[in-house]
């Protein structure tokens, strides 16, 4: 089995079995250890032990992912954030990360400093969010793009790292 070193913990190594377990859970997070064990021809104890290690090392988390539109989030947007002075980037990022509307936040190199994806109930909620974010010390400017339709919302396919 090929082992792949990841930057989770310095000593964490994921092998083909770990990736196979993760793939099953990505397809259906409710897949039982019994089913996974049968498909992989391993013991239930092996699957349970591996699963618990993946949880403990924060490689996976078990959540119920919802379709935002079906639960009342009808305004989904991308907000580019420009920060001045630049030394406030980390402080601003921490404050934005704590806002419950934020689904994705990343620091960028390029035109703007932070990239934020948000899910809001409606456009009025989005305006309130952007106004609140604009009041954070260091936020110089924002540029909002509203997504009118989301065609795909998913996690990466683990098969892509095997190529």
Biggest sheet, spatial arrangement of strands = 4-5-3-6
Mean pLDDT: 90
Provide the structure class. Answer: alpha+beta
Biggest beta sheet attributes: 4 strands, antiparallel
Describe the structure.
It is a single chain. By secondary structure, the chain is α+β, with helices and mostly antiparallel strands. The chain folds into two domains: 4-56, Arc Repressor Mutant, subunit A, CATH 1.10.10; 68-147, Lrp/AsnC effector binding domain/regulation of amino acid metabolism (RAM) domain (Alpha-Beta Plaits, 2-Layer Sandwich), CATH 3.30.70. 33% of the residues lie in helices and 21% in strands. The chain has five helices and six strands, in the order ββαααβαββαβ. The chain has helices at residues 16-27, 33-40, 44-56, 89-97, 123-134; strands at 4-5, 13-14, 75-83, 102-107, 114-120, 139-147. The strands form two sheets. The protein has a four-stranded antiparallel beta sheet. A two-stranded antiparallel ribbon has the order 1-2. A hairpin with a 6-residue loop joins strand 4 (102-107) and strand 5 (114-120). The longest helix has 13 residues, at 44-56. The two termini are 15 Å apart.
